[in-house]
Amino acid sequence: MPEILPSILSADFAHLGEQVALVEAAGCRMLHVDVMDGHFVPNLTLGPPVVRSLRKVTKLTLDVHLMITDPDRYAPLFIEAGADQVSVHQEVCPHLDRTLRMIQGEGAKAGVVINPSTPVSTLEEVLGVADFVLVMSVNPGFGGQKFIPYTLDKVRRLAALRRDLGLKFAIEIDGGVTQDNIGDVIRAGVDWAVAGASVYGKSDPAAAYQALQQEANAALAVRV
Ligand code: DX5
Ligand code: ZN
Known about the structure:
Elements lengths: L2 E4 L9 H10 L4 E7 L11 H10 L3 E7 L3 H11 L3 E5 L6 H10 L3 E6 L17 E5 L14 H15 L4 E5 L7 H7 L3 E4 L1 H4 L4 H16 L4
Parallel strand pairs: 1-8, 2-3, 3-4, 4-5, 5-6, 6-7, 7-8
Helix pairs in contact: 1-8, 2-3, 6-8
The chain binds D-xylitol-5-phosphate and zinc ion.
């Protein structure tokens, strides 16, 4: 079953626990947590203390997306704070194999992220190591941006590689996912779709989450 992952980047940080409880009560299973360091991306968000606080109030799988230049240093701190899965950007990991194995060794699922301009081919060797691959469908740094359509070709290529190589990594997409494109996203091969503005930017986040999840489930029924 495909999963919609609400991104707390668009949530009301003054009421974070309540905002998370809203989607959890609506049936959500995974939550996306965006970590930005002001270096890798031109924005700043949150650190391990926020993950630790979230861990205390929710059973949702915490999917921590590290948009930071030094994930080797900080990934263990996020895992210790309660992250279930951590993704790192290919663009900042010269020893990507080592970084992914380090995350797994610390007890979390390990994901690798590629920016829109980073080719899928840069990942071919580590596809058997990573637990999941996150395809950015916007340039990272901000919520509420427009979906970049060519990133769906990258998803299709990854799905084909997964099939041809007999691998099991999950495919995640992040950025600009809406009710209008979620069907195409799932049909292209995405398992986990992040949605920030289309959930927490709406007046009723629970209903917005459910509408996206329903559309995703319906699209999976026709995926080949
Ligand atoms: C962007 C972040 C995304 C962001 C997506 O840099 O990585 O996770 O929250 O937000 P929307 O869905 O609004 O594009
Ligand atoms: Zn993200």
